[in-house]
Each structure stands twice: as structure tokens, then as C-alpha cells.
Amino acid sequence: xxxxxxxxxxxxxxxxxxxxxxxxxxxxxxxxxxxxxxxxxxxxxxxxxxxxxxxxxxxxxxxxxxxxxxxxxxxxxxxxxxxxxxxxxxxxxxxxxxxxxxxxxxxxxxxxxxxxxxxxxxxxxxxxxxxxxxxxxxxxxxxxxxxxxxxxxxxxxxxxxxxxxxxxxxxxxxxxxxxxxxxxxxxxxxxxxxxxxxxxxxxxxxxxxxxxxxxxxxxxxxxxxxxxxxxxxxxxxxxxxxxxxxxxxxxxxxxxxxxxxxxxxxxxxxxxxxxxxxxxxxxxxxxxxxxxxxxxxxxxxxxxxxxxxxxxxxxxxxxxxxxxxxxxxxxxxxxxxxxxxxxxxxxxxxxxxxxxxxxxxxxxxxxxxxxxxxxxxxxxxxxxxxxxxxxxxxxxxxxxxxxxxxxxxxxxxxxxxxxxxxxxxxxxxxxxxxxxxxxxxxxxxxxxxxxxxxxxxxxxxxxxxxxxxxxxxxxxxxxxxxxxxxxxxxxxxxxxxxxxxxxxxxxxxxxxxxxxxxxxxxxxxxxxxxxxxxxxxxxxxxxxxxxxxxxxxxxxxxxxxxxxxxxxxxxxxxxxxxxxxxxxxxxxxxxxxxxxxxxxxxxxxxxxxxxxxxxxxxxxxxxxxxxxxxxxxxxxxxxxxxxxxxxxxxxxxxxxxxxxxxxxxxxxxxxxxxxxxxxxxxxxxxxxxxxxxxxxxxxxxxxxxxxxxxxxxxxxxxxxxxxxxxxxxxxxxxxxxxxxxxxxxxxxxxxxxxxxxxxxxxxxxxxxxxxxxxxxxxxxxxxxxxxxxxxxxxxxxxxxxxxxxxxxxxxxxxxxxx
Length: 818
What we know:
Pfam families: Acylphosphatase, HypF_C, HypF_C_2, Sua5_yciO_yrdC, zf-HYPF. By secondary structure, the chain is of the alpha/beta class. Among the domains are: 2-99, Alpha-Beta Plaits; 558-772, 2-Layer Sandwich (Nucleotidyltransferase, domain 5), CATH 3.30.420.40. The strands form 4 sheets. The chain has a 10-stranded mixed β-sheet, sandwiched between helices. Strands 22, 23, 24, 25, 26, 27, 28 and 29 form an 8-stranded mixed β-sheet that branches.
């Protein structure tokens, strides 16, 4: 009888409303629902609205359950379902199943990131018998532009830059056919109705096509590259500059014209086989290269062939990506060599997106440009990832990843809508809504006027796209950050609560949030190693050990504060940090007496020492900084790797990692690792990492003529060993009542160093710590806005403010750590 009743219940006809939330628009979700509903014999309709996808379904209970199961198990490739909610539906449902027009309303859905060309579209553009053969803007619901063309929601053609290209009859038929993979693929087009690519000269002179072997303008552009020319390419999220990476003279010419002294160039190759000629590629790295995000992947340059030093000066890695758009696929069809594919800009400026701007800026670099007539609505740089400690980790989060949201821990479910303005360098902003965090694409350095303007435009766009109405503002507590100034102005103008978050606490909170660390979980130790951040004591921090959570922290340990003579100039000139470190540890007389025969002594002797000594002694433009980044600079300077100046941020540290002898790391015992001790600071009594023993060992190895790669390995091992020792020391309680914490969260730009991260994680895990690290969000300042948002949300929840309810009892300005 029970089985009979169960079968009868399963066959009972019912009507339900199914709400699907998450990244479900612009990814082929409605046609997938249509197909599954027809296969499950269900009547009803599906539509997009401001909250995601809405389904009205009528059928047997078992058939509706089958539909739900298939949606959960087999969503479209680019979809990300965050919730499926089912409730009874009382209105009549017509026979058959249809897709209906989008409905407007408050937005609770997501915009999908741009996605690399799928296999089906790639095959189509290379098929001479296909309608879109060699069409450089081919796409479908499983691939193509999203963020780069969108202007508003719902995500329909009319709210994108494709609105300028009315569909031809054949494209319209595909667009309207639920059985077609291009059903409601908003950017679809073809040779007849879509954007066109053209090879032009910026100076307006005519091109002589007889000079080039070509199938079309796209093919002709690569012919120019093969002949040693530089070509500007209007790509998905901005212009790029392309040249043959195997032609050293051309690469050096590009470097000179672009005014990019030493920063490595990104590379693009036709396929994995070309990349393997120059780099080793692990399965995880290959998967990342071929993923819909199609990022630049940093790979070990360990292939049978080598490229010119001009591609990545002083580095042991190359940044490769595969063609991510049909335009790139077609360009590379006949190109069996790697191509430099770098951002289309002058050094440190934002990537050109406007055609007139590109002609003005890039015309000084090359006369040739492959352009098209589809507007780039939003600038989006290429993303960068690296495989470290068994995971592919995002170093720059942009094309392919943004604006995909990040789920906050479960106990943030009632968090109010927060807008976090992020840092000043590697700027991003972050929106909290519906217990998810929307992190913007990488913006760049806000001190650049064009980047600052772009940041403001993107912020306005994201607030519109996500219908975001902030109930509070978060920012860095640094008094002079441009992002913080904007945040304070916004909070004051809108009468919103402002939460000022300490920089390194934001780093720690970002790591906790990414790893799903609950709001009420026990305190963890945040080890944050980076360049510079404003401390609560109005000094500069940069190597910090913070015990806490989102709600607050206690600074338990630090690196030794050392003067930065020249202030910001010391960040650019490693010798300044080296001199300050040596003077802080031993003084000039001791250095001269014991190490006066070193070449290093002569180089430092030639510097304006009396001026620097006076600046340090009197505290004039020489702030003390507990910075791990500046320690890396000083060591790189001592080893002769980067002594005079850094051509780009982090160059000294990156080149120091690049020369590390891996054999020394594995085979040499810890007794030869450079020693760093942990005494207490005078006055505060705070434990700190003291580098005196390390400097004596480094200088001694220089006297002995120890190879630089061996010395670099000993430094990394010694530093990781000291970090683990500090964590163990801080975990101990005096009353032996058990450890103060068992989890360590690693954050800050220094942990984008593969050697340091691997050595630190291994040593911490050997001491039985649970170690949290970054993967989806950059460990560098690109992840800070997420941490600011999480800290602010935690504070506001505690103050009684929840989403859309108000009831706040928080102060108008809350300073983190005070």
C-alpha cells in the first residue's frame, strides 16, 4: 500500500515556480531549461529577470524532480548556480514549454565573465564549408564577450555594444531557435550583419596588400608580424601589441618604443605544442590554459628551445596564453612561433580601448593596426595565474574571472550591501550583495589619471549592473590613498557609515573569506608579507603576524622596522634599503672592517652616505618600515641581482626568486639556511624577525664567492623557517592550556613567490598547522577590497545592520584595530 501511494504521489500533476539564482544569464541557461523540460514532458515557461532565471513548470512530481536533478547535475558550461528555490504555483500554465522575454526588476543575478572561444566555434571558423568560416567575431552561448560589451541588465543585446549590429535573417533564426546553441546568444553575428575587422595604418596611408600573403585582413596582420613588424590589435577588452617573440631585434624595439624597460612581456601561441617547445607544462597548467578564462599562465622556461632575454629579462618563467577569441585563432592559423601579445599602451598607462586614443598613443609604436567596429564597452586586462603548491592561483584577476562573484561564509547571509573601495595600487573594488562578494577586474594604479577615471566609470557600471545600493562604505585607513579619499567623500555625501580597515587585516580577511572561514570561527594567525601598508600606530607595516578574525585582530609579531631613506624612492632603488639594513645591523665601521674588500662595499661607498646617514638619524623622509618586500629588495641588491633601481614594482624580489637553485632547496640542510632570530622589540616587547645573523651569513658567503643561486635559496629557506618558527612561538600559551590558534592564513604579495610559499606551507604543515592560502583571489593588493568588504560586513552585522533593514547602531566612522 505504501509503495502504491508513493507511485501515485510521483504521478500527481502539480505546478511549481522554480527560481534559479547565480550566474545564469547570458550562458545558455534558458535553452538548456527548454531542452530538459521538453525531454521531461513538462509544460510551462522560462524567463530572465532581475533575480536570475524564473521557471513556471507543470508536470508530474517525478518529472519535475527529474528536471531539477538535471539542472543541478548538468548546467550550461559557463553557469554557476548558487540556489534553486521551489514553491507551489497557482496560476494556469499553458500546454507546451516556451521561452519568454526578459522581465525587469531589482537585480539579484550575475554577469558572466568573458569566455574563450569554445571548441564548436573554433571548428566552425576553420571550416571552409561553414557559414562563419574565418569570421573573427563568432560566438555562441558557451563562449564569447560578456563584461567587455555589457552596459546594463538584463543581459540582452540591447544593453550591449552589439546593439549597433541588427541581426540578419539567418542569425535571427538561430537567435530565436531554442534548439540552437546560439539561442539568445546576445553577441552573435556573421559576415553579413556583424562587426568587421580591417587592417589599417594609423597614419592613414594606404596599405599595399600585394606585399602580404593573405586570406583576409586578419591573416595579413599576422603576415606583418611574421616579417618582423609590430602590429596593434583591437582585442576583447583593449588593444594589444603583437610581434614575433623569436625576433630579438623586434622585441627590443617594442620594449624601447613602449618604454617598458624590463617588465616581462606576455606571449601567445597557437597551441600547447608550440608552448612546450619553450616551457614545461603540467596537467594543471594545461587545464588553465585551455579553460574558458584562458588566462596568461606563468610557466617554467624549461623547453628545448629558448627565447631572447628581451622577452622576460632575468626571469626563469614565461607568461603564455592560448588564442581566446576567434580573431586570435584566425591570426595564429599559419603561425607556428610564439608571439609577444602585450597590452596596447605606454608603460604604466591603462590599455587603450578607444580607436582615436589608440591611434594617438600606439601610432608612435607602430603604423599597423588590426581594428574592428565593435565598441569595447569596458576595459578588461588579461588575467594572470600561476600553479603553486598544487593549485592554480590567480595573480591578476580580470578577463575570464571578473565579475564572477565569490560566496561569503554562511554566517554572512544577512550581511548588508557594502561597497569596498580597495587599495591604491593593483586597485579593485568589491560589492557585497546577497551574501556574495563581487570583485571588480584589475584596475591598475590609481595615481594614473586615466586609470582613476576608468575606476570611477567601472564602479558606476557595476553598481548599475548589480543594482547595488550600498548601506555602508569600506576603505583602507591610509590617509592619502586616492581610493580611501573617494570612499570618505562618498560616505559623507550619502550619509553612510564608513569602515576604515587596516591594510594587513584586509589581506588576512581576504584569505579567510576566500576559504569560507566562518564569522564565529576561532581566531587564526594571519601572516601578511608585502611591501607597505599604513599601520594603526601611524608607521609603515609590511611583515605582520596578526591574531584575529573579521571582527578584529591583535598584532602579535612583526619584521624588524628599518628606515627607508628617501621614502617612496627607497621602494624603487634597492641599494637604499640595503644600506639602511646594513647600517641598522652593524654600522659602517664594522662593515668596512670586516667586508671592505667586497665589490659591494665599493658600490655603497660611492653613494651619498653622509646625506643618507643624516636623513636616517633625523628621521627626514626616512620612515621606518617593517616591510618584508623591502627586505627582499635589500637582499637582491646585496647579491647584485637588482642593485640600482627597479624597472617595475617587485622586480628585485621576482628576479631573486628566479635565480634560486632548486637543488640547494631540496638537498642542502637547514643548518646552512640564513639565520633569522626572534627577539623582542624594545619598548613594545613585540616579537620580531631579526636579520642580523642573515646579513653576516650573506656577507660571509659573498667573501667566499658562493654562487648567487645558492645564496638565493638559503635566503628563501631561512625566511620560511623564521616565519614558521614565529608562528610556533606565537601559538604557545604561557599556561600551557593548548595553542592560541591552529590555523595560519598566508597573504600579501610576497606569497606570490613560489619558493617562499612552498617552503612556508611545508614547514607550517610539518608543525601541524592548518594553512589557508589564496587561489581565486590575488594574494597581492588585488584581493584587499574583498577583505575590506568582509571586515566591514562583520562589523555591521555585529552593530545590528542587516541587508535592506537598517537598524544600525554603528558609529559613522569605524577605524579597524582601534
